Amino acid sequence: MPEYAPELIAGGFAVEIADAELLHHWLDLADLAHVLVLRERAVVPVDAAARLLDALLACHRESPAAIGYDPARGEIYNCREDWLVARIGDDAGWLHAGRPRREAVRIALRLRLRRDVLDLLDATAGLVEALGEQAGRHTQTWMAEQTYLQHAQPSTFGHYLLAFAHAALRDLERLEDSFAWLNRSPGGAGGVNGSRLTGDRERIAALLGFDGVIEHTRDAMWQTDGYIALLSAVASLATTCAKLAEDLEIWASQEFDYVRLADGHTRSSVLMPQKRNPYALTMVRGEAGVLIGRLAGMLAVVKTPSARSDNLIFAYGEVPRAVDLAVRQVALMAGVVAGLEANAGRMYEALESGFSQAADLAEHLMLTVGIDYRTAYRIVGAAVRRAAAAGLRGVDLTGKLLAAAALEVSGADHGLSDVDVAAALDPRAIVSSRSTRGGAEPSVVARMAADAVAAGRRAVARVAARREGLDAAEAALLAEAERPARR
């Protein structure tokens, strides 16, 4: 074994070895498939292949700790080779035929991430279901929708929640695209220009349950764009959760009191008995920041010239850890949503106390009096200022107040004193008028909520089918490696 400088061990190999636990299981599968193909093509003698397969199966049964991944012995692949050599001697050397170490690890990373992404798809589908189910319960929980944290227009809590369900569904689509990218095999690519020993690359892909191969052999070894796309999808999903968490943290405050988090998602202050801190939401928001950083870090390391180790060497640990953190973040957000309680009374009280009907009132004046919208907008704006100064609410506006405001704005009252504005000021009536596709009218929201729940459940079923396929491929690979007929 070479004598490595201690600083290389600490600053180099130890960094790689930290990823051994993440890749160990998947390296076993990559190695088994490679040896099976070499045996089928008579590259490796039958007896040597049998001994090597037995050793790899034994390695597969061991934990990473038992293999002895030690940075003093080099990186992950070197440590595995030492373990194999100690058991079967030179027969371990057949494993290198037609394949550099990078190919084994590239395959292992994809095998690992396929499973990780399925876990994240499952969690995302769960979030969509939770949002859809809550939205379905709150189709008539009236609230003042907000922009810039200010009252905008009357809506419902259900309609608000569905905006996040649709965002999460788009994130789910991006993750499914990433799964499809991961599910292509780089196996059989050789150094950079292919390998004459491994033959049909489709055979390795089939043994490992891939949908096909990456066409270009050099690209197969060094492509990084798919990992950037995956981390981008992860960061997008994380920020979807963080936006919702930010809103809920504000709305759970005493000042708003719109929602209450389940006790299991809060943490008490050790000093102030009255405080229930929204700890779950704090973690969701902080985890989004970390995941954005992981994306930025990956972009920074892959900008180097092509065919350099640092293009991908840090991805072996950073990408699986990012996906794992995202799984936990999204599952936490789904739990928060499922356990959320809405204070419908307080929401309606806040809605009625403001002037979120203003835009609808301006439209009403335009349609009933025949003035242009900009003039109607200015009249209503002046009336709102007068009413607020007098301590009135939006529902308290009258035709007389509007007529006085019109005189101020345009020098004419436009006959507004006699205009009935009651329907235009009723928040429930306003929301009920929003029956266009995607609108806030309760029956429209109910349909969208049911669609979201159904979409989440379909995604769960797709994940289950894919897992079943991967499980079957792994079981078949291990069975082939263990088959007595190979001896």
Low-confidence parts: none
CATH superfamily of the largest domain: Fumarase/aspartase (Central domain)
Oligomeric state as shown: single chain
Q: Which architecture name of the largest domain does CATH use?
A: Up-down Bundle
**Total number of β-strand segments?**
8
Q: Any idea how many domains? A: 3
Determine the CATH topology of the largest domain: Fumarase C, Chain A, domain 2
Please count the helical segments. 19
Write out the strand line-up for the largest beta sheet, numbering strands in chain order. 1-2
**Helix vs. strand class:** mainly alpha
Characterise this structure:
There is one protein chain. This protein is mainly alpha-helical. The chain has 3 domains: 6-97, Fumarase C, Chain B, domain 1, CATH 1.10.275.10; 102-349 and 443-477, Fumarase C, Chain A, domain 2; 358-425. Helix content is 66%, strand content 5%. A two-stranded antiparallel sheet has the order 1-2. A two-stranded parallel ribbon has the order 3-4. The chain is elongated. It starts with 5 loop residues before the first helix and ends in a 5-residue tail after the last helix.
List keywords for this structure.
elongated, 487 residues, 3 domains, Fumarase C, Chain B, domain 1, 5% strand, two-stranded antiparallel sheet, Fumarase C, Chain A, domain 2, mainly alpha, two-stranded parallel sheet
